[in-house]
Amino acid sequence: MPTTAAAKMAPASSPPSTRRCERDEELHLPGAAAPRGRCDWPGPEPNERGGEVGSGAAGALPAGGQRPAGGGKMAPGDRRWQRLWVPVPHPPAGSCLLLLLLLLLLLCGQLGGGQKKKENLLAEKVEQLMEWSSRRSVIRMNGDKFRRFVKAPPRNYSVIVMFTALQPQRQCSVCRQANEEYQVLANSWRYSSAFSNKLFFTIVDYDEGADVFQQLNMNSAPTFMHFPPKGKPKRADTFDLQRIGFAAEQLAKWIADRTDVHIRVFRPPNYSGTIALALLVSLVGGLLYLRRNNLEFIYNKTGWAMAALCVVFAMTSGQMWNHIRGPPYAHKNPQNGQVSYIHGSSQAQFVAESHIILLLNAAITMGMVLLNEAATSKGDVGKRRIICLVGLGLVVFFFSFLLSIFRSKYHGYPYSFLIK
């Protein structure tokens, strides 16, 4: 039985790697544009003369050369319309695996290159910091160095930064004293056997890195901060200078808590205290030797009372706090030149402020002594009355002045009935 061209193309059964194109479905071939239209084709197509391609009843058109009505739908078993089977090639499994392997190699190469670049950058930063540390225990930094070596990653080391203002025009005496303690701590770390590249000490002066102060919203100095190897500094990474002080031993303890690096502080020998004690003992011994025949002054109650009052005045006025914290004597505003002798915060004081408090306490004590003398003496009544009025005036006036100072430092101080 003769077959048509369409019949030769259609296999008896669909091979495993072919895809059957059903009616009313578009056929998409790899590498070619999708044909528009259906893929049901009539078995024989008419030639230019109205004939058929091939011969045979199975591929003949109906009488008159017209397709059947109803969109070309034929009854079951009618073979005048043939279906086209088109094989769709699949890429070999080996080529897919090779492509995936190439993509993985390319991705690993990029990741490896980026990691190597980070390691090289980190090595350069550590090498530079070690070179600076070999020259000076405390590394001075400006804004650019701070952003590159302290803020920017990668970083596998901790950095202790002291923000200060050491220029003479700033008149920050506490900054100079804190810097001395900081230098002692940095030198102790630099020359210790445990020295490594895991911890560096740096300093940022306001006149050299004002942009850093502005970036960190910092408006006071000195300030000590710890910048950890990973992440941002936390609240505990800022040293509590007002509560603990800036002694090198306290700074070392804080650093041990934040970095697990323990630093043993080595101070240079200081013989000033020993010399002062020797001079005091020599002075007292010489005085006793000169008055060896008359030592009645040792039993003088008034002398001992005056000495005790001097010690009390010194302690209650904050002299010991000044010795520990080392505050400036006063503060001069650089903008208007106004000098402040009373610190505006309850957490700090000036040296001049302690002197003022000492004098006020002494005046109040003097007033109380005069009141006691006026009440216990047996002299003239008029004289006793004058002594009483003077003593009362001293107590009221200077105690009111003392309360006003407390009110300026402790806002909302309850004892405000004397000062309006």
Automatic annotation (TrEMBL):
SUPFAM superfamilies assigned to the protein according to its UniProt record, in alphabetical order: Thioredoxin-like
Positions with biased composition (Low complexity): 1-18
Pfam families: OST3_OST6
Subcellular location: Endoplasmic reticulum membrane
Presence of the UniProt keyword Ubl conjugation in the record: no
GO terms classed as biological process: magnesium ion transport; protein N-linked glycosylation via asparagine
Swiss-Prot/TrEMBL keywords: Disulfide bond, Endoplasmic reticulum, Magnesium, Membrane, Signal, Transmembrane, Transmembrane helix, Transport
Pathway: Protein modification; protein glycosylation
Gene3D superfamilies: Glutaredoxin
Membrane topology reported for the UniProt record: Multi-pass membrane protein
Residues covered by region (Disordered): 1-76
GO-annotated cellular components: oligosaccharyltransferase complex
Ranges that cross the membrane: 271-290, 302-321, 356-374, 386-406
Comp. bias (Basic and acidic residues): 19-28
Family: Belongs to the OST3/OST6 family.
Protein name per Swiss-Prot or TrEMBL: Tumor suppressor candidate 3
